[in-house]
Amino acid sequence: MDDLTKTAFLNRPDLHVGTEGEFKGWRTWSRDNFETNNGPFWHRIEEDGQIRCAFRVENKHLNGAGNVHGGAFMAFADYCLFAIAAPVLTDRP
Fold first, then answer.
1. How many Å apart are CA 4 and CA 34, to the nearest integer?
2. Tell me, what's the pLDDT at 78?
3. How far is residue 32's CA from residue 44's CA, in Å, rounded to a whole number?
4. Ranges 11-15, 21-25, 31-35, 55-59: which has the least confidence
5. Which of 18, 57, 73, 86 meets the CB 3.0–4.6 Å disulfide criterion with 23?
6. Distance (Å, rounded) from C-alpha 4 to C-alpha 88?
7. How crowded is residue 9: how many other Cβ atoms within 10 Å of its Cβ?
8. Is the model's pLDDT at 82 over the cut of 80?
9. What pTM value is reported for the model?
């Protein structure tokens, strides 16, 4: 990822960076009510430029059998797809 893309990706006004706990330094977006209510989902840029995504499973993510609901996994997958693609989705001069 070049510097222009990385800077545009990190300077989004809706980007929130965790300040405490297990996701301190990880990033999330505040623009999407669906993801906010289903997450919180987090991502970070590794030193090698790869994007790592994570979330902590809570009771709200479980189905009636006590397993993570497939819909929760799909919402997380959707978040991950955007987090991975976001650095290259910026406009270039």
1. 29
2. 94
3. 18
4. 11-15
5. 18
6. 10
7. 19
8. yes
9. 0.78
Helix, strand and coil percent figures for the chain, each rounded to 5: 40, 15, 40
Residue pair 29/14 in contact by the 8 Å Cβ criterion = yes
Cα distances (Å, whole numbers) of residue 17 to 21, 31, 37, 93: 12, 14, 17, 27
Given a contact cutoff of 8 angstroms between Cβ atoms, the answer to whether 42 and 23 are in contact is yes
DSSP 87: G
Q: Say if residue 13's pLDDT is above 60.
A: yes
Site of tokens 């990822």: 1
* Contacts (Cβ under 8 Å, ≥6 apart) of 12: 29
Residues 6+ apart with CB under 8 A from 1: 9, 49, 87, 88
What span, in angstroms and rounded, lies between the C-alpha atoms of 12 and 35?
17
| 89 band by pLDDT with thresholds 50, 70 and 90 | confident
- Measured in residues, the chain has a length of 93
